[in-house]
Design goal:
CATH topology: Rossmann fold
Number of strands: 7
Number of domains: 1
CATH superfamily: Vaccinia Virus protein VP39
Number of helices: 9
Helix content: 40-55%
Strand content: 15-25%
CATH class: Alpha Beta
Strand order of the largest sheet: 3-2-1-4-5-7-6
Length: 224
């Protein structure tokens, strides 16, 4: 059964669970921070596609005090959690929250950068082209897109390794087994080459991988 991101209990436990589920979670976010600091100007408007509970939004608000953000999610429960998460930062005036799919955004505003972290692998195969194209169209020239997702599992050994690492991170054997069962229900992963091809087809060039941890891989793509 696919995980219900509109469930309050799922949302409340998400931040703890995701750190057990994703190897190198904090390291990936450090890399994202470094990329944004390198490629994005001091005053910028950032699109966060699938903002979840607001963790990513929260640290970016603190690190980049002159940036403004548009944060989207398909779950009203997630958006409410994100609003609560950033409230102590006194920075809500710098964020516009939108309950919407990125393909439904009205592009009166253009963004300097867009982030889709652990989101694209939930987009169905038939919708991925529209998803990437919508992000491309939303960006200014020049603009960057950073994505980090699960890629296709290539072998039983790779699947077993993924199961082992989440148990090392703190998941129980029952939880890791449930995770493996949910891969078919929850995820629509592309291969590394397919991801690059889809991004290129949407207009991005160049496209560069910036990290890989087991089956999870991150790309930075440029609109020039």
């Amino acid at each position: 059964m696919a995980k219900d991101f509109k469930s309050q209990s799922v949302v409340d436990g998400y931040d703890l669970h995701i750190r057990k589920l994703i190897p190198g979670y904090e390291v990936v976010h450090q890399q994202i921070q470094a990329l944004l600091k390198t490629y994005v100007k001091e005053h910028a408007h950032i699109l966060i596609v699938g903002c979840g509970t607001g963790y990513e939004l929260g640290y970016l608000l603190q690190l980049f005090p002159h940036w403004t953000f548009t944060a989207t999610d398909l779950s009203a429960t997630m958006l409410e959690k994100a609003k609560q998460y950033i409230q102590p930062l006194n920075a809500s005036h710098r964020v516009q929250f939108i309950l919407s799919d990125v393909t439904e955004l009205k592009n009166e505003q253009s963004y300097d950068a867009a982030l889709s972290i652990l989101v694209t692998h939930f987009v169905s195969f038939q919708d991925k082209s529209n998803f990437f194209e919508a992000i491309y169209e939303s960006l200014k020239l020049p603009g960057i897109f950073i994505t980090f997702d699960l890629t296709q599992i290539q072998s039983e050994q790779e699947l077993e390794t993924l199961k082992n690492v989440v148990e090392i991170n703190g998941l129980s054997s029952a939880q890791s087994t449930a995770m493996i069962r949910r891969l078919t229900d929850d995820f629509y992963p592309l291969s590394s080459q397919e991801t690059s091809d889809q991004l290129n087809k949407s207009g991005f060039n160049p496209i560069m991988p910036f990290t890989q941890i087991l089956a999870y891989q991150g790309f930075i793509a440029f609109k020039n």
